[in-house]
Amino acid sequence: MHSKLLDYIRQHATLPLSSDEEGLIVAAFQPKKLRKKQYFLEEGNVCKYVGFIVKGAMRQYSVDDKGAEHIVHLYIENYWVSDRESAVMLTPSKYNIDTWEDTELLIAKVADMLDLIERVPSFGQMTRLMDQRSFIVSQRRLNSTISNTAEKRYEEFADNHPQFIQRFPQHLIASFLGITKETLSRIRKQAIK
Amino acid sequence: MHSKLLDYIRQHATLPLSSDEEGLIVAAFQPKKLRKKQYFLEEGNVCKYVGFIVKGAMRQYSVDDKGAEHIVHLYIENYWVSDRESAVMLTPSKYNIDTWEDTELLIAKVADMLDLIERVPSFGQMTRLMDQRSFIVSQRRLNSTISNTAEKRYEEFADNHPQFIQRFPQHLIASFLGITKETLSRIRKQAIK
DNA sequence: CTAAAGCGTTGATAAATATCAACGCTTTTT
DNA sequence: AAAAAGCGTTGATATTTATCAACGCTTTAG
């Protein structure tokens, strides 16, 4: 069960991983299964866990004054899931995170993660890389959002993330892109011609 | 000249900073002055330097097919400036970074930064915190962009970043928010009433 | 000192996108 | 098996935002 996580760490660090270190990691991460639609984190709570998705699909979203959901993240296998803002700042989360499919996770307490970062150099390396990548991805998305039309944003997204298109329904993709489901439907209709 | 940087590091790390370590940091960072409108990084080049702004104001922007500029970042004193995507991935940058005012920087080679991260624990701590914060800020901005109207985005921005409003002209703020300068002008007119 | 460029504003119009309502089809629940 | 909920689509319309053009005012450059 933990082997997927250990593989992932090895692939994202240059430093080696001793078997002692592997033990520390395995000890910190517990398997957790969530059925479709179950919450990993609810708005208002402080995010105390970080999860690594072994199998499944999840989403992170905010709910505005009118009750409309806005998808801020979609996650599938090999993604790290948490509300970083809440976990780092120890503030109540503005987001909900739940499962879109039955999902198998490996979860660790945020505090234990910090411990591993100090104790296991390759783990620290991996998380640093993750932090940087998250920022880069977020920047690209932001740049795309302020620079492009809805149509271009969808095309870019579909090109770069075909897995998500297959896995999540259109209305979630639309919300992720910051447009309505009707607009996305029309964009797709255009694209075919 | 370097004291502002050393202070900054101390404030953003829990670990102490020995005088040996201070020496390493000072050695890695060279002062650099840029006159208004000079480039720190030009599109197409790999970002080889990271800068810490001691005094001044800068911007990072992309230029689309039609020659329109889209501001992705505004920077002032105590901000770190670089194209992270280019620096981390070692790919040609899609952005320009230039000065909006005469600016004093402390710059270090990306490679030397990586060295410091390994050698000086508190420096590593500080950069990790910066990475996390950058991501959080980027996430907030993204969430605001997909959830709110232009008007709310401007209000939020003006509330949270009054320094930027004072320091940069409206058309740059507009571009930063992903709207045209005319629209921002009209939003501001409404707001007064 | 004068010309040019930069900046913010306004008006008229066009384009993009949202909203509201309704419909068929499929999947899930009872 | 029937009812309900979820999903994508379409049409009519409203709203938001962009575009284009012009103008005064200020700052910068020659």
Helical stretch tally of chain A: 9
Beta percentage of chain A is 15-25%
- Might you state the CATH topology name of the largest domain in chain A? Jelly Rolls
> C-alpha Rg of chain A, in Å?
18 Å
**Assembly classification:** homodimer
Q: How many domains make up the coordinates of chain A?
A: 2
Termini distance of chain A? 46 Å
Going by CATH, the homologous superfamily of the largest domain in chain A would be: Jelly Rolls
At the first level of CATH, the class of the largest domain in chain A is: Mainly Beta
Q: What is the architecture of the largest domain in chain A at the second tier of CATH?
A: Sandwich
Strand order of the largest sheet of chain A: 1-8-3-6
Q: Greatest contact pair? A: A-B, 29 and 29 residues
Count of strand segments of chain A: 8
List low-confidence stretches of chain A.
none
Shape of chain A: globular
Q: How does the major sheet of chain A shape up?
A: 4 strands, antiparallel
Question: Could you give a short description of this structure?
Answer:
Two copies of one chain form a homodimer. The first copy, chain A, has 193 residues and is α+β, with helices and mostly antiparallel strands.
Topology:
2 copies of one chain form a homodimer.
Chain A: H1 3-11, H2 19-28, E1 30-34, E2 39-41, E3 49-55, E4 58-63, E5 69-75, E6 80-81, H3 84-89, E7 96-99, E8 103-109, H4 110-119, H5 121-147, H6 150-160, H7 162-167, H8 170-177, H9 181-192
Antiparallel strand pairs in A: 1-8, 2-7, 3-6, 3-8, 4-5, 4-7
Helix pairs in contact in A: 2-4, 4-5, 8-9
Chain A binds a DNA duplex (30 and 30 nucleotides) through helix 9.
